[in-house]
Amino acid sequence: MQPAKFLGIGLGLCGLFLVGLGEVSSQEERVPTAVERGEYALRAAGGCTCHSNPNMEEFSLSGGRPIETPFGIIYGTNITPDPETGIGGFSDDDFVKAMREGIGPDGKVYYPVFPYTSFTKMTDEDVRDMKAYLDSLAPVKNENKEPEFRFPYSQRSTISVWRGLHFDAERFEPSADKDAQWNRGAYLSEALAHCGECHTPRTFMGATDDDLYYAGSVEGPEGELAPNITPDETTGIGSWKTADITWFLQWGLKPDGNDTQGLMGEIIEHGYQQLTAEDLEAMAVYLESLPPIENQVRPQE
Amino acid sequence: MKSRKLALFLVALLLLGAGTALVQAQGDEEIIVYRQRLMKGHVASMGSIGDIMKFKLAVGTDHVAVHAKNISEYAKLIPAAFEKDISAGKTDAKAEVWTNWDDFVTKANTLSTAAATLSTAAAGGDMAKVMPALKGVGDACRGCHNDYRKPEEERFPRD
């Protein structure tokens, strides 16, 4: 499928989203602006709450949030357009390089806690739109804090070793033998929502163990349990219907009525909750198509 | 002789204390079970609401209104059910329930109000009001659980 057609579907869906908001009457055919599309992409990425500021009452992407990893603590960076402490000084190309290659304008190599391993798959348009949205936010002054990683991980040169083994900068390629809905769901899950970054267990080197793709991890992000979301009947979500998945992604409510808390609850609230019904269904269809993997992920006794 | 009597007295005291602790522990277990049943009651109603909305069951918003009212009423029972400080044993309640008691009670009240709002919206049958009200209930569940229920990796495995 041509990328342009793919993009067209994305734009059309954005339009549906805005209709849902009641901001655009079904009579008008207003094309969403880059800022609106960029906000939508950010929501699809889970709301980027890793970049939230824990010291502000109001939600802000001005950074400072401590993120625990097996290698130490890293602090989310300021992605408001403040020119000194945020990304206000980034050109569009700088931003694309950061998202796609994990390299900052000063040549700094980012720790892959920032999931550029997934964002690398985003379309050029989505990346640039996201920047347009971030540029539209109020700039907030908040200095970034350096990570507190144990030696040798504190040396950024170790990232290059890791990248050599585990990182390929690549675009998402739609599958010709799958339909538009599946491809949309695959793109959303792989490139934006980055489900695999949390729901795939990691090796001792911190890379995703692709033999257990989406099969869950009892020690997931920040030590939180990330369930098996492959369609395995007994250990995954194979018993869930499509509507159960979309309902969950929208409300954080499981089929039995229980809610999800912690990180997943947060990214639903700040992110997926605001996606269109069509996009949520596309993600569900994609998840349902994954190979079922038996992997029991339960709390420790 | 005196020291022997004293020793016997102390042993008796110890046994009495241990016995009391045992009785107390048995009472605590029952309270934990009740708290969990109460929470399961909420979950059953929430699941029912989900089924009706997801699968567009013919029973419709009339039933949603009743299930939401159930949640609203159950939520009023939460403070009393959790009044006794029991964070040891097979419970998913965090100790913060009792160190932040006022906030815990406030959050239970928030849930009760949000569920009542959903009930009213559902009774009116206006989907435009039902969806934000549903969000309000989900947010209330999560808002309390984030602070007062252990994260999934620390919970006791259940059937």
CATH architecture field of chain B: Up-down Bundle
- Under CATH at level 1, the class of chain B stands as Mainly Alpha
C-alpha geometry of chain B: elongated
Beginning-to-end CA distance, first to last residue of chain A: 48 Å
Given helix and strand content, the structural type of chain B is mainly alpha
Strand content of chain A: under 5%
Instruction: Please name the two chains that share the biggest interface, counting residues whose Cβ lies under 8 Å from a Cβ on the partner chain.
Output: A-B, 27 and 28 residues
By DSSP, the count of extended strands of chain A is 3
Structural class of chain A: mainly alpha
Number of helices of chain A: 11
Major sheet of chain A: 3 strands, antiparallel
- The amount of beta strand of chain B, in percent, is under 5%
Low-confidence stretches of chain A: 1-26
Question: In DSSP terms, counting alpha (H) and pi (I) runs of 4 or more, how many helices of chain B?
Answer: 5
Strand order of the largest sheet of chain A: 1-2-3
Largest sheet of chain B: none
Provide a compact summary of the structure:
With 301 residues, chain A is mainly alpha-helical.
Attribute tags:
heterodimer, A: 301 residues, mainly alpha, Cytochrome Bc1 Complex, Chain D, domain 2, 2 domains, 3-stranded antiparallel β-sheet, 11 helices, globular, disordered N terminus, B: 159 residues, Four Helix Bundle (Hemerythrin (Met), subunit A)
